[in-house]
């Protein structure tokens, strides 16, 4: 009899339980619904971290399981944010404009309202016309659809082009990096239609919602937690079945999978597009909590940090990605936020604001060299699961294959 | 015209006086005594012209003295002298004709002539004709420069007259060129102007274009029904065509007072708002005024009641547009001249266009050599060894900072650059070897991990540089002999520093080829890259070879850093600005082949400059389109322009 995939992967239940416990804990301690131990800004940080965990899960799916090191997933994350940001900004500006126009004696015409919104939104880039890409901005439903469709379509086209011409390995990484760089540079222009380097702002205010930020931040935390749980479940389901076996096969030896008759390109494209959509959803939840999105967010460095999180957390296991993203991003904001105490060394004082990146970079090198399993490896130690010692013999034939640590999964 | 008549008159007058007394200038001065003493800008013209045209050698001295406020008039008899102030409020008078001292006289008996700035300008214009024939070439050059700066019709004759006596061929050429330009601008004879335009057409000088452009500049005007007589019309315009919209045309009519102003939407709105009474405007309830049609209807009724200016309908606008003729006209009255000027400018434009493309090619070439410099180290570490080194950009940065530090110690720029280049090589070579030994060696079989580990090093190095040198840009000053530019004509020029970078790129190419093809290290490197085990069994130590090769690639990146630092500012982000382009260059060119890298750099450089030329205001868009182009290019040649074949391709 086939066991259900949850029974095969008890870690899913543990993860979901921990996530639920965490959410409940934050709710109880929050300012909005609980006793007020955790400040609203920290609730927002936690909510954003959950979104980063979600995109880390997507990254793990594409890198840890399919073996494609994409250095461009933050492009999809950012696009998702832009798509939801367009509606938030349009709707909020519309309400303000309608409100202010209703003060005048003569009722405003439709075109007056649209012109005034355009002036409000695009005044900073010296324009007042609505570009074509804002055509759906007045409809929440369509714009929510765009959150998934636009990044999904970009991933589909880009992936199709890249995989079709059999660009693999580091070439693909560089190509994805070029893609996100191109997108960021494009958005930096004032006439890109998305307000150039000003980006979209004021996204934390939900139009038509009168509740305080304390409550809104909790809503977003719940939504993020739910999305992370659902995304985790989806990713776990994808990798546990036959589909999962094929993509792991592609990771370990692409040629062999192809010779077995699988359409490698289709599998890769599916995973690439799926993860792009997950990343976009994560972005759509992230930026309303951050309040502002600008093209710097999708610069190539962001996507590389994503790879750093997953690598430190431990790729090839979904909870590893979550742990890595949560830990490194929280530590990062702790160190760069100036909260970490300085270390006086007599002649020189180590300020963590300056030295955190050095520490991160070096620890990243060390993790790659000495703990390729990442922090997920610690859980192996705890569950007393050891890789068989093969005295250096290959388990997989491909140089890039993850060998020993995969043997048991 | 008036000026010329006056000048002719003056010449006639002078002729009489000159025959009467050939050698003295005093009679000329006396003749114009009144005007000279009156010193009014409006009337002084004939006096200056008379002096200048007297043909006497003293004229120049008189004018110079006058302009320098050294001319005095003796009150007793009205004679003019050059005066030098002496002690006891006395002035020593010098005769203009003989140069002898006449004697010293008390200031109170004299009147000093103090020409105002307007008169001084006229005097200096008159002086130019003397300066044009001055024995001192520097003075002649000055005169030419002043004519160039401030051309005038009256200077044409003296300029022509000065050809004969000119001995310096360079100055003569300058004079002739200037004469042609002045002829185009100021000659009274139309055919002479056209001949001058024809003579000069095809010349690239900015001065020629500056002369021709005012001739072809047009002003837009409107007239009822037909174009007035005597206007040199460039083009009759019809509203709604050729970038001349009906709105612009109507605005012109309104500005000229030929039509009532259009009532814009917000004026309608304001008029309606001003006339609200009891929740209604002109009988229309307020609630239905939320669209343009109802508002217009209400406004028209308001206008009918005389409460607002009448509404101008689209038909009225069309009718008034139809009643007027719109045209562009030239300032110059002569159609032949403007036609010739337009033709000449068109010819010049073609030539300028050709030269601009040459300039663009040079620009692209220098950009390509910068990309090549940035990528050549990568061509070794990534192209030959297959190691992804994301810290390559930081090696470039280290080289640039080494150059900066050396310049702090050695102030002489030439020596410091000569010292900095080997030092930068040494520093980055050492860094590269250390990195290979400590990190990359353990990751040879895992390329993706190499990418990540070197990226970790990259962010650590970048932050370290920030901590040491701060975030502001540090200057790396190039030696003085690299300043300036090689100017071919007014359109094409290239700065020496770009030439130097180009030369450096060629040297690097040579060095790379020499090392790879002609040395033991190159042979061993190629062997180890193709098959490390086989190479090892031939007695090559692969570890050592890898280490040295990686060090070499890093060292070259360091030297490239010094060159790039001279061209751009040195910041901690210097390297990361180039890293994606560098990888692109290597990937587009074809991994493992230096010629491929060269072609890749050339292609990317030309592409970027080409796109920038199409859309000059937007370098960001240029980069975006370039990357998109590269992504598409990789579709067709996934292994780059020059793909390795057979065993060398590895796999």
Automatic annotation (TrEMBL), chain A:
Major location category of this protein: membrane
Cellular component GO terms held in the UniProt record: plasma membrane
GO molecular function: branched-chain amino acid transmembrane transporter activity
Top-level taxon of the source organism: Bacteria
Membrane topology (UniProt): Multi-pass membrane protein
UniProt xrefs under CDD domains: TM_PBP1_LivM_like
Entry keyword Protease: no
Keyword annotations: Cell membrane, Membrane, Transmembrane, Transmembrane helix
Subcellular location per the Swiss-Prot or TrEMBL entry: Cell membrane
Transmembrane parts of this sequence: 71-90, 140-163, 170-188, 219-239, 266-286, 292-311, 318-335, 355-372
Pfam families from the UniProt entry: BPD_transp_2
InterPro entries: ABC_transp_permease, ABC_transptr_urea_perm_UrtC, LivM-like
Chain positions covered by the region annotation Disordered: 390-409
Keyword Protein biosynthesis annotated: no
Protein name: Amino acid/amide ABC transporter membrane protein 2 (HAAT family)
Protein's organism: Primorskyibacter sedentarius
Lineage of the species this protein comes from: Bacteria, Pseudomonadati, Pseudomonadota, Alphaproteobacteria, Rhodobacterales
TrEMBL record, chain B:
NCBIfam families the record matches: urea_trans_UrtB
Keywords: Amino-acid transport, Cell membrane, Membrane, Signal, Transmembrane, Transmembrane helix, Transport
Name of the protein described by the UniProt record: Amino acid/amide ABC transporter membrane protein 1 (HAAT family)
Coiled-coil intervals: none
Recorded topology in the membrane: Multi-pass membrane protein
CDD domains xrefs: TM_PBP1_LivH_like
Subcellular location: Cell membrane
Membrane spanning stretches: 364-388, 417-435, 496-516, 547-567, 579-607, 619-636
PANTHER family in UniProt: ABC TRANSPORTER PERMEASE PROTEIN, BRANCHED-CHAIN AMINO ACID TRANSPORT SYSTEM PERMEASE PROTEIN LIVH
GO cellular component: plasma membrane
Annotated source species: Primorskyibacter sedentarius
Keyword Secreted: no
Claim: Ion transport is one of the keywords in the record: no
Signal peptide: 1-20
Alphabetical list of InterPro entries matching this protein: ABC_transp_permease, ABC_UrtB_bac, BCAA_transport_permease
Similarity comment text for this entry: Belongs to the binding-protein-dependent transport system permease family. LivHM subfamily.
Gene Ontology biological process terms in this record: amino acid transport
Gene Ontology molecular function: any one: transmembrane transporter activity
């Amino acid at each position: 009899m086939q066991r259900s995939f949850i029974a095969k992967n008890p870690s899913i239940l543990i993860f979901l339980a921990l996530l639920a416990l965490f959410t409940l804990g934050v709710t109880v301690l929050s300012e909005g619904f609980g006793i007020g131990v955790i400040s609203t800004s920290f609730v927002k940080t936690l909510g954003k971290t959950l979104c980063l965990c979600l995109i880390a899960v997507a990254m793990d799916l594409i890198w840890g399981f399919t073996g494609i090191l994409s250095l461009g997933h933050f492009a999809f994350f950012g696009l998702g944010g832009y798509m939801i940001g367009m509606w938030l900004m349009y709707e909020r500006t519309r309400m303000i404009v309608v409100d202010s126009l209703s003060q005048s004696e003569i009722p405003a015409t439709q075109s007056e309202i649209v012109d005034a919104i355009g002036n409000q939104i695009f005044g900073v880039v010296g324009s007042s016309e609505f570009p074509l890409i804002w055509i759906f901005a007045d409809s929440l439903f369509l714009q929510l659809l765009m959150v998934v469709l636009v990044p999904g379509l970009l991933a589909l086209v880009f992936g199709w082009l890249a995989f079709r011409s059999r660009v693999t390995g580091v070439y693909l990484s560089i190509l994805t990096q070029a893609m996100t760089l191109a997108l960021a540079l494009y958005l930096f222009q004032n006439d890109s239609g998305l307000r150039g380097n000003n980006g979209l702002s004021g996204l934390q205010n939900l139009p038509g919602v009168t509740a305080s930020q304390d409550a809104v931040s909790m809503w977003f935390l719940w939504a993020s937690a739910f999305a992370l749980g659902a995304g985790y479940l989806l990713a776990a389901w994808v990798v546990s079945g036959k589909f999962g076996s094929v993509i792991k096969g592609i990771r370990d030896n692409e040629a062999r999978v192809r010779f077995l008759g699988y359409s490698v390109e289709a599998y890769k494209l599916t995973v690439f597009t799926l993860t792009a959509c997950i990343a976009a959803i994560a972005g759509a939840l992230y930026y309303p909590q951050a309040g502002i999105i600008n093209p710097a967010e999708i610069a190539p460095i962001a996507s590389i940090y994503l790879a750093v999180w997953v690598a430190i957390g431990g790729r090839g296991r979904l909870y590893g990605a979550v742990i890595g993203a949560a830990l490194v991003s929280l530590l990062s904001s702790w160190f760069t936020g100036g909260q970490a105490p300085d270390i006086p060394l007599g002649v020189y004082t180590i300020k963590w604001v300056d030295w955190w990146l050095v520490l991160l970079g070096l620890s990243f090198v060390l993790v790659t060299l000495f703990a390729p399993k990442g922090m997920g490896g610690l859980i192996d130690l705890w569950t007393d699961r050891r890789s068989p010692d093969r005295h250096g013999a290959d388990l997989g034939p491909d140089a890039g294959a993850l060998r020993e640590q995969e043997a048991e999964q | 015209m008036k000026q010329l008549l006056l000048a002719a008159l003056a010449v006639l007058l002078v002729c009489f006086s000159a025959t009467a007394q050939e050698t003295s200038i005093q009679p000329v001065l006396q003749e114009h005594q009144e005007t000279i003493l009156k010193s009014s800008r409006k009337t002084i013209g004939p006096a200056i012209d008379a002096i200048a045209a007297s043909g006497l050698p003293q004229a120049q001295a008189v004018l110079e003295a006058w302009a320098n406020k050294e001319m005095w008039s003796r009150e007793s008899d009205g004679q003019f002298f050059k005066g030098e102030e002496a002690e006891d409020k006395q002035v020593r008078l010098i005769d203009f004709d003989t140069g002898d001292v006449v004697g010293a006289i008390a200031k109170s008996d004299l009147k000093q002539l103090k020409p105002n700035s307007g008169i001084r300008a006229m005097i200096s214009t008159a002086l130019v004709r003397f300066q044009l024939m001055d024995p001192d070439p520097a003075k002649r050059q000055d005169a030419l420069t002043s004519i160039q700066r401030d051309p005038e019709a009256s200077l044409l004759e003296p300029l022509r007259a000065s050809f004969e006596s000119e001995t310096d061929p360079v100055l003569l050429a300058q004079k002739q060129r200037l004469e042609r330009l002045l002829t185009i601008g100021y000659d009274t004879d139309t055919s002479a102007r056209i001949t001058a335009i024809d003579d000069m057409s095809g010349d690239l000088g900015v001065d020629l274009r500056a002369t021709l452009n005012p001739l072809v500049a047009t002003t837009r005007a409107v007239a009822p029904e037909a174009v007035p007589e005597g206007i040199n019309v460039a083009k009759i315009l019809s509203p709604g065509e050729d970038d001349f919209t009906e709105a612009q045309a109507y605005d012109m009519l309104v500005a000229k007072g030929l039509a009532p102003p259009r009532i814009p939407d917000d004026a309608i709105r304001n008029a309606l708002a001003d006339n609200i009474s009891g929740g209604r405007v002109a009988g229309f309830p307020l609630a239905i005024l939320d669209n343009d049609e109802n508002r217009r209807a209400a406004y028209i009724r308001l206008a009918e009641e005389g409460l607002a200016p009448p509404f101008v309908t689209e038909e009225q606008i069309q009718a008034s547009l139809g009643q007027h003729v719109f045209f562009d006209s030239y300032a110059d009255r002569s159609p032949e001249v403007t036609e010739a000027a337009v033709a000449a400018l068109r010819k010049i434009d073609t030539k300028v266009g050709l030269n601009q493309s040459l300039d663009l090619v040079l620009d692209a070439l220098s950009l390509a050599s910068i990309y090549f410099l940035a990528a050549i180290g990568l061509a070794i570490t990534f192209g030959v060894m297959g190691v992804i080194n994301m810290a390559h950009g930081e090696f470039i940065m280290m080289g640039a900072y080494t150059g900066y530090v050396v310049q702090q110690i050695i102030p002489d720029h030439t020596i410091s650059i000569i010292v900095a280049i080997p030092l930068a090589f040494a520093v980055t070579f050492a860094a590269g070897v250390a990195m290979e030994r400590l990190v990359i060696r353990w990751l040879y079989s895992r390329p993706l991990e190499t990418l990540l580990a070197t990226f970790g090093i990259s962010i650590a190095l970048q932050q370290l540089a920030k901590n040491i040198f701060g975030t502001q840009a540090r200057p790396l000053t190039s030696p003085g002999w690299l300043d300036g530019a090689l100017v071919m004509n007014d359109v094409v020029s290239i700065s020496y520093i770009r030439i130097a970078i180009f030369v450096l790129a060629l040297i690097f190419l040579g060095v790379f080829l020499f090392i790879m093809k002609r040395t033991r290290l190159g042979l061993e490197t190629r062997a180890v890259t193709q098959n490390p085990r086989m190479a090892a069994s031939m007695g090559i130590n692969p570890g050592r070879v890898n280490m040295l090769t990686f060090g070499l690639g890093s060292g070259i990146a360091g030297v490239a850093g010094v060159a790039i630092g001279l061209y751009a500012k040195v910041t901690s982000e210097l390297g990361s600005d180039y890293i994606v382009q560098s990888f692109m260059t290597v990937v587009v060119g074809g991994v493992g082949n230096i010629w491929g890298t060269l072609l890749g750099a050339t292609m990317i450089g030309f592409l970027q400059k080409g796109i920038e030329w199409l859309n000059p205001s937007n370098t960001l868009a240029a980069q975006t389109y370039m990357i998109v182009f590269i992504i598409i290019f990789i579709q067709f040649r996934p292994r780059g322009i020059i793909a390795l074949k057979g065993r060398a391709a590895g796999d």
